[in-house]
Amino acid sequence: MKNTKEISAILTAVFCLNRAGNENKDITLILDYAFRRLFGANTNLLMLTCLGHTLDEVKSSVMELLEAETAYKAYLEEYRK
User: Fold this and answer.
1) Closest CA to 42 of 54, 56, 58, 31
2) Strand, helix or coil at 21?
């Protein structure tokens, strides 16, 4: 697998976007499983950080996370060409 160091940030972004939007319980369960199996962690703290935030508020935080931890911004720039 290539760039596995980005997995945690990507899963965190998906988790937060899912929680702040119209939450899909199946996605929540899959992400919870992934965090437990891949990182030995649970999503309780992530859930708490998402409480009370709108989707727009979460999107800006998610983009900051992805820019800091992944090459997502470069991907977007290339993809939009």
Assistant:
1) 31
2) coil
Residue with tokens 């998906």: 14
Instruction: Count how many domains the chain has.
Output: 1
Radius of gyration from C-alpha coordinates of the chain: 13
Residue matched to tokens 């998610």: 62
- Residue 64 domain-assigned (yes or no): yes
Would 1 be classed as within a structural domain? no
What distance in Å separates the CA atoms of residue 61 and residue 16, rounded to the nearest whole number?
Answer: 9
pLDDT tens series, the chain, 81 aa: 577 889 999 999 999 999 998 999 999 999 999 999 999 998 999 999 888 999 999 999 999 999 999 999 999 999 887
Q: Which domain holds residue 37?
A: 7-79
